[in-house]
Amino acid sequence: MFIRMIGVFEVRDEAGKDRTPRGAKARALLALLARTPGHRRPRRWLEARLWSDRGQEQASGSLRQALTELRKALGPLADRLTSDRDCVALAGFGSDLADPAAARQALAQGREFLEGIDILDPGFNLWLAEERQRVAAELAEPRPPVPFALRLADLPEGTEAAIARDLAAAIARLAAEYLLGERHGLTGDRLPGGLDLQVEGAWNEDRAWLKVRLVDPVQQKTLWSQRLVASRTLDRAAGAPAVVFDATDAKLM
What is the pTM of this model? Predict the structure, then answer.
């Protein structure tokens, strides 16, 4: 059994014979089940989407009538639709959404998800609006990778290898968290030349004065800078020296 959901809704059996039910709510019932993970829904859930303006007893009767209409339309495929006292389920079908390229082409040509199923029920219309957004998101073309570069300029003279290693690891971790977080990638203008991360400063016994800058390497323009004071203190818990950074004089350029 094949269900077309992009464009005019239709159901066809393996021989290509049209098995589409006439009633809009019978069609909508199939669509609701087809788009549900596992293709099984409680009767009350279906009634709330298709007969939300009716009382419980009347909504239950309407659902039974829709199931009867569906089974009659499906004919020999009626066993694909099962129900019990609590739930209704659909099995043994495929849909045009299984072919993303063809479905994307149909959407690009102006077709819509579930065209022509006009039901004056707020529960269904809310589901339909949300589902159209979900289908569009599922069929969206994958975004190409966005290249970026972080270049670390010379570290201050005397920087220990362990500090350089930890700094590189921290930068990589922060970049990954930023790109994979809720911001979904870099925002604002993308710089074709990447960014230079420049660290300058000087040591004086157990203290260092540093300046960190983000520079557009193409225009050689400082985009952001911050001054840091690093001091060496004793980490009593670890029993070893630790480097503590104190951010001062932060500013946006």
Answer: 0.60
